[in-house]
Amino acid sequence: FFKSDILLHNDASCHVSMNESIAQKKTKPRIAIYYDRQCGFCRRAVALIVRWFMVRVSHTGPAQAEEEIYKLMQAHDSWVVRNEKGETFTTFQAGVEIARHSPVLWVLVPLARPRFIQRFGEWTYRKIARNRHRIWLP
After folding, report:
1. Fewest beta carbons within 10 Å, which of 30, 51, 59, 96?
2. CA-to-CA distance for 112 and 119, rounded, in angstroms?
3. Strand order from edge to edge, sheet including 80-82
4. 5 HSE (CA, 13 A, CB side)
């Protein structure tokens, strides 16, 4: 009789900790992604990235909706990403933060740390930003 009580107690506490773990997984951090309302390429790119790479987002929408975000977008000519801590990211770093919130891309985040990758990422971002009106997306 005594052994079965212990087993039942252990099973119950295990069940509670498993439920807590499941609840924590359901509330993974999310990001907000803001883009230029006049940029069809930007709107479509955000939609595709979120869908294809299963990015956990709390919001996607035009930067013009929030004055502070819009000013950042204009100053950096970039999307703006805000994470769960309220930190904002632009240009290549916005892309890294998006990857951090993707179950598909997160493994690439450490590769973005070296300085030469940072420079190459910024250069690539600028090249795309300057030519976004010429780029077609499905």
Report:
1. 51
2. 10
3. 57-62, 31-35, 80-82, 88-90
4. 2
